[in-house]
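Lab channel / #folding
Pinned by the channel admin:
"Please post every new chain as: sequence first, then the C-alpha cells as a reply. Keep commentary short and put observations after the output so the thread stays searchable."

First post following the new format, from NK:
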Amino acid sequence: MTSELCDLSATEQLDALRSRAVSARELLGVHLERIEQTNPDVNAIVTLVPEQAMAAAAAADDLAAAGGSLGPLHGLPVAHKDTHSTAGIRTTFGSRIHARNVPDTDDLIIARMKAAGVITIGKTNTPEFAAGSHTFNEIFGVTRNPYDLTRSAGGSSGGAAAALACGMHPIADGSDMGGSLRNPAAWCNVVGFRPSPGRVPTFPAALPWGTLGVQGPMARTVADAALLLSVIAGPDRRSPLSLQDPGSDFAVPLDRDLTGLRVAWSPDLGGAVPVDTEITDVLTEQVGVFEDLGCTVEEACPDFTGAEEVFRTLRAWQFEAMLGEAQAAHPDLFKSSLAWNIDEGRRLTGPDIGRAERLHAGLFHRVREFFEQYDVLLLPVTQVSPFPVEQEYPTEIAGVPQTTYLDWMRSVYFVSTTGAPALSVPAGFTPAGLPVGLQFVGRHRDDLGVLQVGHAFEQATNVWRVRPTL
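Reply from TO:
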C-alpha cells in the first residue's frame, strides 16, 4: 500500500476502511513504515507495540468481514499520550519513578477510544509529569519539531503533535493545563482543542473537582478533532464535573455561515503579554480572512487581571497535592523546574488559595460579559516561535525577560483560567518556515461554536496541508 495514506485526514482514512479500499492491517502497516522512517529523527513515539497492534487490526478486519458493528474510529492506528494509562502497555508519565510502570487498566479516555475502534500502536512522548511546554525527559530524551529538527515541538502533548505532523497517526489524545494541547499543535502545524472542563470526563483523577487541567483531542484538521471529541466526550458518573451532553453532539458537519459573526482580535491579550513580531505579523495578516467570511472584526480583549495569580496559585497547589509526596521521597528524580513548582505549592497558605479563587470568580464574570458583545476571541497561541531543543524555555520575548519555565506560556494559560473552550488552528509560517497557530476562544461551554469557526478559517486558508519534509 502507498505511504500517502498516512497523510490523509482521519475522515479520509475511515472512508477508505469502510469502502474496503484498505484493510485495518494494511493501514497499520503503512503507518508502521512511516514511524520507522521518521520517528528516529523526531522521537515522537517512545513505546511501540507493533505485534499487539497487528493482532488488534486483524480482529478489526475479521469483525468487518463478518458484518459486525464497527465503531466510528474503526481501524485507525493511534499512539496515546504517555500520561494516559494504557492496560498492558508501559506508561511512564515521562518520569524515572514510573519508568517500568505497566498499568492493569485504561484511563477512561483510552477506553472510549478503544471502544470506538482505534488500534493502539504505542505511546507518545511528554515532559516529566506533563510539566512544561517543551517535550523532553530523562527516559526518552527530547521530541524534535518536524519542520526544523533543531527546534522544540512544544508540549506537553509534543510527541502527539509531532507524530500527527509526520503522519505517524491520524488523531491523538492529549491534555492541557497551561496550553499542552494548543502550544504543540501550533508549533507542529496541527489542530489542538482544549474543551470546556467536564466535556471530556477524566477517570481516574486524583483531583476530580479541578477545572484547570482537561483532556482533549488533537488531529490534522478541525473536523477530525471534532470526530475524536465525539468519542471521548459525554457523561460519566465517576467524574463529578462531567457534562451531560452526549459526545454525539460533535459528530456533525462543522460547516456554518459566519456572516455577521462578531469577532474580537487581540495580538497581545490586551497588552498583557509580550509577543514576538514574527508571530503577530503572520496572524495580523490572517485576521482579514474573517472579514472575507462576512464577520465583523474589532481589536478587543477581555480584562485578564488576576489570571496570572489564579493560574500560578492553583497550578502550584495541584502539583503539590498530586506530586508532593513523591518529590519528597525521590528529590533526585524530579527536574528542577518541576521541583520548584511543587515547592511553590508547599509555601501556599489558606488565604493564598482563597484570594486566587476570588480572583478566579471575577475573571470568569468579566469574560462572560465580554462574550455578550463578541462571539469569538482570536489570540496568538504562542508568544514565540519554536526555540532550540537545547533550551528548557525561552528566557526573553520581545526583550522582556522570562524568568521561569511558565512565564512564556501566558497566552494560553491565561485562557485556561477562564474555563473557556479554546482551539489552536494552523495559521501560517514565520520567514524561517516555522509554524504559527491562531487561537480561537469561545463563550462558556460553546465548544461546538469554536470548532465551527476554526473549521471555517481552516477551509479558507488550508495551511494545515503544508506537511513537513523529512
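NK: The chain has a mean pLDDT of 98.
TO: also worth noting, The first strand starts at residue 45 and ends at 48.
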